[in-house]
Amino acid sequence: MSFRISEDGGAATVVLTGDIDLETSPLARQTLLEAVGRGMPVVVDMGGVSYMDSSGIASLVEAFQKAKAAGHEFSLVRVGGTVQKVLALARLDKVFRIL
């Protein structure tokens, strides 16, 4: 897994690529929480994520909850078919703002 954080237009954009699993989810969590800590809306680009397990979902949920508690939007973009299915199975497609 790799990541990149950038700021553009008043939002922090996190680009994640590769697999987000038990081995890589701690880095994903750290990256997402760092973006939330910037005090602005967060957009997570999931277009390069090929696989995500429950530990990846937990990282997304934790970051979402922290952003919401701070009063900031947290959105997912370019969610691919496999990841979309995982989110739908967990019913998180109804929780996350997916653009």
Describe the overall structure.
- The protein has 99 residues and is an alpha/beta fold.
- It has three helices and five strands, in the order E-E-H-E-H-E-H-E.
- The protein has helices at residues 25-36, 54-69, 81-89, and strands at residues 2-8, 11-20, 42-52, 74-77, 97-98.
- A five-stranded mixed sheet has the order 1-2-3-4-5.
- The longest helix is centred in the middle third of the chain and has 16 residues, at 54-69.
- The mean pLDDT is 93.
In brief, what are we looking at here?
The protein is α/β, with parallel strands linked by helices and 99 residues long. It has a five-stranded mixed sheet.
Topology:
Layout lengths: L1 E7 L2 E10 L4 H12 L5 E11 L1 H16 L4 E4 L3 H9 L7 E2 L1
Parallel strand pairs: 2-3, 3-4, 4-5
Antiparallel strand pairs: 1-2
Helix pairs in contact: 1-2
> Whole-Å distance between the termini?
22 Å
Strand order of the largest sheet: 1-2-3-4-5
Mean pLDDT: 93
Q: Looking at the chains present, what oligomeric state does this protein adopt?
A: single chain
Instruction: Summarize the amount of helix as a percent range.
Output: 25-40%
The H-and-E topology, N to C, reads as EEHEHEHE
What characteristic shape results from the CA principal axes?
Answer: globular
SSE-based structural type: alpha/beta
Number of helical segments? Answer: 3
Largest sheet: 5 strands, mixed
Low-confidence stretches: none
What Rg is obtained from the alpha carbons, in whole angstroms? 12 Å
The number of distinct β-strands equals: 5
Strand coverage percent: 25-35%
